[in-house]
Specification:
One of its GO terms (molecular function) is feruloyl esterase activity. The protein has 555 residues and is of the alpha/beta class. The protein has 14 helices and 17 strands. The protein has a nine-stranded mixed sheet with strand order 2-5-6-8-7-9-10-11-12, sandwiched between helices. Strands 1, 13, 14 and 15 form a four-stranded mixed sheet that branches. A two-stranded antiparallel ribbon has the order 3-4.
Length: 555
């Protein structure tokens, strides 16, 4: 199977003719522009002069009659690639009109300012496409609307997409949940912000360019993946193509899964003078190396090359018991309690009746990692961005599960249950999923389970409209010892607009060299010989899935 090159996708295409405003306004609930006539498509200089005028224009209320306030509109000049304040790589961007505003500005019952703040970036050289960018964490800020999720090295804005982003209706730190005291803000985060900003963003683009977007897309990872899932499930007419990464689709139960795993590891840890576990000593650095070496010994060569990466995910059936010490505990082997802790933690929690509450977690090289702000799935007992270390020795799974099910805000936010996608698929919508196998927060097998259940519900239409990509070694959304840079956005555009179903997609490292094909499940990149750093040295092999680890729906 050949690797699909993405170079041609990176070219900013000429504007797509033929879209008419009538088609856009026919969508129920769309925020329509009013108070001005359409602007004929013109030169970049004409659009640049047009940009500041958007700040004084009025737009019809979004769904539910919620007012729209445009706060600023200004041209941002073309910029070269560079480096941000935190050392992050900044892509080259074309000149664009940046529009910022807020939907339904108001004061909440708690006295805080609320409203869905948004940004819409409109390139002066437009390719006729619109993209809604997904958020992250609990949102709370408007991230630059560039559309970088699963877009390789060239984000959507650099390709000529009009791109919108938003804060989902509240302001605050990325994991600040205090907005949940406000009903409207809670509903906006759970679902309402997505259609509101999508509809308004399309209306602003239509006003600016004088014609509606020819095609609309959405892409995001983590919370952005959940938001993209809810668009597919609850607002099926909004978008033509979607890219969903590592979706935070049921955080109550995924958090329960990680809590359960930490408790299992604590049970294998030595105790302090008060009998409490010492989480940082459950697995030593030598133990972690033993686990990684044993995992590679059992699974690395299955893809044709022992290179420290496990590409044949479906074929890897790691057995921790093979690493158990035959005599006393020593470096190079694991104790019986450590082996038991691994078996239980990676199998996932079950209730008293034996029903799965969360999915199993795949074994991958990143599970022992301690280099990042959050450790791999085998917790290292540090205080991190998720909070202080867990020192519990037990957890009442049934009580915790009952509390999660009783949280109706959680139920409205979750997107793991609805699999009837007949309306989205009925208008030829296409969707690509991806998930890092070393993700320490959400199990890649849980996302795969949803994808499989959607296949059972929708039959042949799903096979004709969706693909799933496992990303070996990748942590949450990016990073890890992985080929974590790939262009699924270009792949879904080609599928929607050219009818070209995606196969292998070229993947490179965000840190390091080399390339591999990223293969649709259940395929994997198998080494055929030649230069191991070249993607052409690999092909997508069809892995047998019978007996492979499978997630249970749970919850």
């Amino acid at each position: 199977m050949m690797v699909k090159q993405s170079k041609r996708r990176r070219v900013v295409q000429a504007a797509i003719p033929g879209a008419v405003l009538v088609g856009l306004l026919a969508v129920p609930g769309l925020a329509q522009a009013r108070g001005a006539t359409s602007v004929p498509p013109g030169s970049g200089s004409g659009l640049a002069q047009r940009c500041p005028l958007l700040a004084g224009m009025r737009f019809a209320p979004t769904d539910g009659g919620r007012p729209v306030q445009i706060m600023a509109a200004q041209v941002v000049p073309q910029s070269a690639a560079g480096q941000g304040a935190q050392g992050e790589a900044l892509p080259a961007l074309p000149a664009y009109c940046k529009v910022s505003g807020v939907i339904d500005p108001r004061k909440g019952a708690d006295g805080r300012a609320y409203g869905i703040r948004f940004e819409v970036n409109l390139p002066l050289a437009w390719n006729g496409r619109f993209l809604l960018q997904g958020g992250g964490g609990l949102n709370g800020s408007v991230r630059p609307a560039v559309g970088g999720a699963a877009a390789g090295t060239v984000p959507a804005l650099a390709r000529g997409f009009a791109v919108a982003s938003h804060d989902s209706g509240h302001q605050g730190a990325v994991f600040d949940a205090s907005f949940r005291t406000d009903q409207r803000a809670t509903l906006d985060f759970a679902q309402a912000a997505v259609p509101a900003v999508a509809q308004l963003g399309k209306a602003i683009a239509t006003r600016f360019y004088g014609r509606a977007p020819a095609h609309s897309y959405m892409a995001g990872c983590s919370t952005g993946g959940r938001e993209t899932m809810l668009a597919m499930e609850r607002y099926p007419a909004l978008f033509d193509g979607l890219v969903i990464g590592a979706p935070a689709m049921r955080t109550g139960f995924s958090n329960l899964g990680t809590t359960y795993a930490k408790v299992m590891f604590n049970q294998a840890a030595p105790r302090d003078g008060q009998g409490l576990p010492l989480p940082d000593k459950a697995f030593s650095a030598a133990d972690r190396q033993t686990i990684r070496a044993g995992l590679l010994a059992q699974c690395d060569g299955l893809d044709g090359r022992a290179d420290g990466m496990i590409m044949a995910v479906a074929q890897c059936h790691f057995r921790p018991a093979a690493l158990q010490c035959h005599a006393g505990k020593q470096d190079g082997c694991l104790s019986a309690p450590q082996v038991e802790a691994l078996d239980r933690a990676f199998a996932g929690p079950r209730d008293a009746a034996g029903r799965a509450l969360y999915a199993p977690v795949p074994y991958d090289t990143g599970v022992v990692d301690t280099s990042g702000p959050v450790s791999g799935y085998i917790a290292d007992g540090r205080t991190d961005i998720l909070g202080p270390p867990n020192r519990d020795l037990s957890v009442d799974l049934d009580a915790r599960a009952a509390a999660i099910r009783a949280d109706w805000m959680q139920a409205l936010t979750d997107t793991d249950g609805w699999t009837d996608l007949s309306s989205f698929l009925g208008h030829q919508g296409k969707v690509l999923f991806y998930h890092g196998v070393s993700d320490p927060w959400f199990s890649a097998l849980d996302t795969l389970d949803y994808w499989k259940r959607a296949g059972k519900t929708n039959g042949a239409a799903w096979a004709q409209s969706s693909r799933f990509y496992m990303v070996p070694g990748m942590a949450h959304c990016q990073g890890g010892d992985a080929f974590d840079r790939f262009d699924l956005l270009g792949a879904v555009v080609d599928w929607v607009e050219r009818g070209e179903a995606p196969a292998a997609v070229l993947a490179t490292r965000s840190q390091g060299k080399g390339a591999r094909p990223l293969c649709p499940w259940p395929g994997y990149a198998r080494y055929n010989g030649g230069d191991p750093d070249r993607a052409e040295s690999y092909s997508c092999a069809e892995a047998p899935v019978a007996g492979a680890a499978a997630a249970g729906a749970g919850g």
